[in-house]
Amino acid sequence: MRAVLLYGPGDMRVARVAAPAPQPGTVPVGVEVVGICGSDMHVYRAGRLGSAEISREPFVLGHEVAGRLLVPVPERELDAGALVAIEPQLSCGHCRLCRNGRSHLCGHARCLGVPPMAGGLAEILLVDPRQLQPVPESLGAERAALLEPLAMAMHIVDLAAPRWDESAAVLGCGPIGLLVLQLLRLAGCHPLFAIDPVGSRAEAALLFGADLPAADPETVLDATGREGVDLVVEATDSPLALAHAASLARRGGRVVMAGIPDGGRYEVDSDSVRSRELALRFVGRSPRRLADALDLLRAGRLELDPLVSHRVDLDYVPDIFARLARDRSGILKVLVHVGAGR
């Protein structure tokens, strides 16, 4: 089968590899569509994500996955050929956090596309049956692959706990930021600001519910009389993100940090957070919310399709990763059509 292999930072190639051998407790999925996520870019650039590092063997990225079952799964009442999205995280199920309904924080969890658990940029993927989320044929494989980032955005907004008619700003207008914008609009936030230095992304925020797009925090501060906003949600990869988010929040405001900074560290003056009594919350992995995301999408409450700016096949993946690493202008969501199910 074909797969996209990451050998080290910036060294990505398409190769033919042996199909994964069946393992007890797993089912094979023919991968159709995979979304490229910001966390994939971190692994691509650095060869690691936090403490998860690529070993000597080449690694397969991709955790936003949709495909079709290659065999029936009787315990889930699913037939061969069924369209499914894949829940990326597999937790232990036994620790205190798992028992208390917080399995996404499990210290023993493995995550699809995060070393050492290979991801979906390959024609065939083995997964645990518990990771399968059936998707109606009417939605199609592209929307099925977008359920994972939507679930992540829902988790971010849950942690943000927006209140009706409070002001809010989203820092970073990539796919996650734009999904968060839509959800904050649904929650009644007003006015709603969006900040991104990439002009095409800031402009896209208007389509997703922003009242005012901006290239920098200063524009928003000027618009609020230098007071800032009640709620800031950050979704960038900048080491300055915490400093920028804190500068946007009013005194006593709330800041939710959802991005992953390049280099793994933030640069911030602690007094800008402490002296203004900001409530600060960080976001880790998303809990198992694919079913909730599917319900929200089927209710017609928000748009996913306009997020997709580029569609590529498997052979073009190394080129699109290299382009994203250089310049994200004009790019929102990239979907890879792997084609195993076609």
Description:
The protein is an alpha/beta fold and 342 residues long. The chain has two domains: 2-134 and 304-337, Medium-chain alcohol dehydrogenases, catalytic domain (Quinone Oxidoreductase, Chain A, domain 1); 152-282, NAD(P)-binding Rossmann-like Domain (Rossmann fold), CATH 3.40.50.720. It has helices spanning 38-46, 96-99, 140-160, 175-186, 199-207, 217-223, 241-248, 270-274, 290-298, 317-326; strands at 2-8, 11-16, 27-35, 48-49, 52-53, 64-69, 83-86, 89-90, 110-111, 124-127, 132-134, 168-171, 192-195, 212-214, 229-234, 249-257, 279-282, 308-313, 333-337. The strands form five sheets. Strands 3, 6, 7, 10, 11, 18 and 19 form a seven-stranded mixed sheet that branches. A six-stranded parallel sheet has the order 14-13-12-15-16-17, with helices on both faces. A hairpin with a 2-residue loop joins strand 4 and strand 5. Helix 3 packs across helix 4 (175-186) and helix 3 (140-160) packs across helix 9 (290-298). The radius of gyration is 20 Å and the shape is globular. The mean pLDDT is 92.
Give me the count of strands.
19
Order of helices and strands: EEEHEEEEEHEEEHEHEHEHEHEHEHEHE
| CATH homologous superfamily descriptor of the largest domain | Medium-chain alcohol dehydrogenases, catalytic domain
Structural class, by secondary structure, is alpha/beta
Contiguous uncertain segments of 5+ residues: none
Structural shape: globular
Features:
Quinone Oxidoreductase, Chain A, domain 1, six-stranded parallel β-sheet, seven-stranded mixed β-sheet, 27% helix, Rossmann fold, alpha/beta, 2 domains, 342 residues
